[in-house]
Design goal:
This protein has four helices and nine strands; from the N terminus they run H-E-E-E-E-E-H-H-H-E-E-E-E. It is α+β, with helices and mostly antiparallel strands and 200 residues long. Strands 1, 2, 3, 4, 5, 6, 7, 8 and 9 form a nine-stranded antiparallel β-sheet that branches.
Length: 200
């Protein structure tokens, strides 16, 4: 596969129900072009956040702030936010005024591996380059400057990648949301069975 031949996913791809989209994103190729070069990886792990009724979501109770504003708009945009010192990337999902999103938790490096390695000097091995939401953004060069970017246009975009068999998709509780009541047990995390770049 050459990214120069690939086309970004059409906006209608993102109009799927959020839980379906979270699974459909598995195997897709996340690409970031920078002045240093292009880096990309196959999405291997996602988490869905279901908006106003989801205590783990930033938009729980329709919380509308400068940070969450992009989630109230059209699906298919990047929602970047800071968690401690790490930038994380989410795909805005749901209908307009229905603020849902999907966190990208892990990717398998595919393009620009030398660049990825240089950006992750403290990683002990290749797996640690991108097996977590804060790791993969550093590896690809994704930052808060990408907030609100439409994911069907460079320099940050998603295209078709590997077709994933439904039997290879594993479902379980989300990670790191222990203070979110019953929401911590919702099985809204999805990953590719046996992939080394899944976060845990």
């Amino acid at each position: 596969m050459s990214i120069f031949d690939a086309k970004p996913l059409d906006k209608k791809f993102y109009r799927q129900p959020t839980l379906e989209l979270a699974k459909s994103l598995l195997g897709c190729l996340l690409i970031k072009e920078t002045c240093e070069g292009t880096a990309a990886g196959f999405i291997v792990e996602t988490e869905a956040y279901m908006g106003p009724l989801d205590r783990a979501a930033h938009s729980f109770n329709n919380r509308r702030t400068k940070r969450t504003e992009i989630m109230f708009g059209e699906p298919g945009h990047a929602y970047t936010h800071l968690m401690h010192t790490h930038c994380l990337i989410n795909v805005v999902s749901g209908q307009i005024e229905q603020p849902e999103s999907i966190l990208i938790r892990g990717i398998e490096p595919y393009i620009g591996q030398e660049l990825i390695e240089a950006r992750r000097p403290k990683a002990k091995n290749k797996r640690q380059w991108t097996n977590g939401p804060g790791k993969l953004t550093k590896a690809l060069g994704i930052s808060m400057a990408d907030y609100g970017h439409s994911l069907d246009t460079p320099p940050l975009w998603i295209t078709c990648g590997r077709k994933i068999n439904v039997n290879d998709i594993v479902t379980g509780p989300r990670i790191g949301i222990d203070n979110s009541g019953e929401a911590k047990d919702y099985p809204w995390r999805f990953w590719i069975k046996g992939n080394a770049y899944v976060s845990r």
